[in-house]
Amino acid sequence: MSWGEAIRLTGVLLTDPTSQVFAARNDWSGPRSPEWFLLADLFDLTHRAHAKNPPPYPRPQPEHRPARRGGTTMSRAEVLAVLNRYGHDFKEVQR
């Protein structure tokens, strides 16, 4: 596995609330399953139906806004040429 692939895969783990990596990065006690979030929503709905202005059940998940990394003034063809110099085999694709 190359460093680039390892970095991309780590990026995927950092966006998945069911992974230990995501939990550790966000100071959670452990990963949360989709069912956990669903049950928290059901708790909120039930509580809201039976109480006046109840606070929402605390959720450990931060606002999910994927960060854009980097930036360039290079054209797409220039970026592909740089990547190909480092051993990748990208071809120009017309959009």
Could you list some keywords that capture this structure?
95 residues, mainly alpha, 46% helix
General description of the model:
The structure is a single chain. The chain is mostly helical and 95 residues long. The chain has a domain of 58 residues. Helix content is 46%, strand content 0%. It is elongated, with a radius of gyration of 21 Å. The model has no long low-confidence stretch (mean pLDDT 82).
Would you spell out the secondary-structure blueprint of this structure?
Blueprint: H1 3-13, H2 20-25, H3 34-50, H4 76-85
**Can you tell me the overall shape?**
elongated
Low-confidence stretches: none
**Beta fraction of the residues?**
under 5%
> What's the N-to-C terminus distance?
30 Å
The gyration radius over C-alpha positions equals 21 Å
Order of helices and strands: HHHH
| Secondary structure tally: strands | 0
Q: Profile the largest sheet.
A: none
Q: Residue-averaged pLDDT, rounded?
A: 82
The percent range for helix content is 40-55%
Structural class: mainly alpha
Helix segment count? 4
